[in-house]
Amino acid sequence: MAALQALFGGTFDPIHYGHLNTVEALARQVGLHQVTLLPNNVPPHRPQPEASAAQRVAMVELAIANRPLFNLDTRELMRQTPSWTVETLEQLRLERGETQPLAFIIGQDSLLSLHKWHRWQELLDLCHLLVCQRPGYERTMPTPELQNWLTQHHTQQASALHQQPCGLIWLADTPLLPVSATDIRQRYRHNLSCDDLLPAPVIDYINHQGLYRP
Ligand code: ATP
């Protein structure tokens, strides 16, 4: 069977160590050799990213230049309209075949609100979910029904993720990194240092482009 392939979607406005270091730790735990970053378009009714799509891509490219685990797929940004994760996963499933083990990586905050995602119940028909812990977020689901759903799909066997094409949830024991893009943008607005929060080349780019300034 082909190696487990993993995808990690996000706004990446900007990409930071909460994304990079957490997913590297997850990759070591689960045995991932490649993680594809999928920067997304944001639907018009939601607050828009401050950085343009091209700037978000540039920051991702700088961040992963010396991190061989990661590569980049800009398909969601190429489309005029925001794409739903489930549709991107359908496309990837078609491209990679029925038997290819595929995983989508999310943070705990995203797991807790997954039931608000478009066609969320179909996600596990297309991929596994690998969930990274995030400080400040509950470990139990908001309703007993959702907790049941989680329990039904939860696995503690990393090998199962490599053997099945989809359908399982892995709750990773990743380090708790208290970093968010919102916090970084606020720190920039208040001229506070972000040195420990994101890679130096990304910081240089933000400064050079004058991003996130008041
Ligand atoms: P914002 O603060 O603008 O909402 P963010 O920091 O949450 O941004 P996103 O690009 O929206 O970053 O996140 C992409 C994915 O990364 C989401 O699934 C999110 O849960 C996860 N993630 C972001 N930061 C962390 C972190 N510090 N630890 C674990 N997961 C994280």
From TrEMBL:
GO terms for molecular function: ATP binding; nicotinate-nucleotide adenylyltransferase activity. The gene is nadD. InterPro entries: Cyt_trans-like, NadD/NMNAT, Rossmann-like_a/b/a_fold. The keyword DNA repair does not apply. It comes from the Bacteria. This is Probable nicotinate-nucleotide adenylyltransferase. It catalyses: nicotinate beta-D-ribonucleotide + ATP + H(+) = deamido-NAD(+) + diphosphate. Keywords: ATP-binding, NAD, Nucleotide-binding, Nucleotidyltransferase, Pyridine nucleotide biosynthesis, Transferase. PANTHER family: NICOTINATE-NUCLEOTIDE ADENYLYLTRANSFERASE-RELATED, PHOSPHOPANTETHEINE ADENYLYLTRANSFERASE.
